[in-house]
Design brief:
Elements (H helix, E strand, L loop, with lengths): L2 H14 L15 H4 L2 H35 L5 H16 L2 H29 L4 H24 L1 H4 L5 H28 L3 H22 L15 H17 L6 H23 L16 H15 L5 H9 L3 H8 L1 H13 L5 H24 L7 H30 L5 H32 L4 H26 L7
Amino acid sequence: MTDSSSARTTTTRSDQGHHAPEAGPATSSGGWGELFSRPFAAPASILAGGVALYAMNLYFTAALLPSIVEDIGGARYYAWVATGFLIAAVVSAMLVSRLLARLGPSRAYLTGFLVFAGGAGLTALSPSMEALIVGRVVQGLGGGLMAGLGYAVIRTALPERLWTRAAGLVSAMWGVGTLVGPSLGGLLAGLGLWRGAYALLLAAAVVLAVLARRSLPGPSGTGRPAEPLPLTPLLLLTLAAAVFSVSSTVPRGWATVLCVLLGLALLAGFVLAERGGAATVLPKLTYRRGNHLKWIYLTVAVYCAGVMTETFIPLFGQELGGLSPLAAGFLGATVSAGWTGAQLFSVGLASERARALAVRLGPAVLTAGLLAYGLLQTGSASGARVLLWALVLVAGGTGIGVAFPHLSVTAMRSTDDEVEGAKAAAGLNTTQLIAFSVSSALAGTLVNAGGDSTLDGARYLVLGFGALTVFGTVTAAMSLRRPGAR
């Protein structure tokens, strides 16, 4: 097939809302070269770009906040800059599958990018912290859509042989955000350009919006009526996210414990409402007896808990290792570095046996890395010990990277129904956002349990999360069971 005929086929099918075009036999390798070949480069860039924007925005805002507070004040609202963004992202992420079914990939992405761009513009122009929080909430609404669509549109925009590579590329963007976000934010903050940082986000979102409108399929035209919104589960999950976010801002002690317990109770109520509801946030398959989708989501949640240790690792590097802020920031990105590097290798695993082994071993490797880091903690650490910290954290991150792409594709293949398949893929992002909210609160609680001792706080956090990730070895094994097995 010639380039011109490939382009005509892409355009035709995009207009009709069908799956992405199949490349000719000469390019049907299913490798990185095909993913970034002419027929698929634009969709792949959109999927990765949306998640990269979301992830970078999460991390570089933390670096910009001191400069923002110095400029416009509002220090008492410091925590709500992140909290407002996260809650809005959780809400919009739960609407991805419905928006996708109604509008199709092209218009759904256009909506997400433009809402995110509007929020970035409001943030850049904010005269006060209250106005900035409004802008961050709007950003969160668009960001939750972008992150969820990154998984959900893989099925529609790309042929099945490229799903694993695409899933690896999309999930690697979380690691890229962790690596690039803090350094970019710190650089712009040092130059006094925090408003310009959000202007850059606005420009990038607009460019991706134009690309999405031109390159992605339209509505599928299945004629299936839109499902009603799952209002009760949506409300319970939103309240749970809010409570977990607030728990890290209340005074240490019983207030924190009560917030965590209330959040867990709301999550339990969410599950009960989902199981008995006609309309659900996650696919109905999740709650069907014998289906392994629930175990995939739980394994993803465990991985997100492991990643959340990165929030405090820079602090531990400075306080316990005597590192400069820049060096401590790079130490904090080691888990994501291992995650990103391992994914590039893991997506090339060809045999089903090798992929299953990667999924089974991933949580164990992550747990070993976290426990080793916790046991190596000490005050006034030497350079050699800090190097060991970095090595074991990179090793722990590889546990996420080797397994994550295969979990993503298994979720997408959990059904032949295109709408439910997209919903299953979008559920990965919903699970990630909820898990980040929960684990963020737990991380703050564990660190605060150390009192004035940074060393004790570090040990409580890392060893506590290491114990939690052990649970992932069970859920990963269950995710590999054949459908229909209990």
